[in-house]
Amino acid sequence: MRVSVDPLVCEANAVCVGLAPEVFDLNDDDELTILQPEPPADQLDRVRHAVRSCPKAALTLDE
């Protein structure tokens, strides 16, 4: 599984950061950084929830 972000769509609402802080982070310029593009198995449910919860649908999950 691989998670990615469309930086042109992302508004840095940080919903994903709140749901999966081990995988997502906002840098000092309010740009989303994916810390683990291929999250470990124990994070998959949280990452799926974060992708579904993104208010701008800027996250993509390729399984």
From TrEMBL:
Keywords: 3Fe-4S, Electron transport, Iron, Iron-sulfur, Metal-binding, Transport. Transmembrane segments: none annotated. One of its GO terms (molecular function) is 3 iron, 4 sulfur cluster binding. InterPro entries: Fe-S_cluster_ET. Gene3D superfamilies: 3.30.70.20. It comes from the Bacteria. The keyword Metal-binding applies. Its cofactor is [3Fe-4S] cluster. It holds the Pfam family Fer4_13. PANTHER family: FERREDOXIN. This is Ferredoxin.
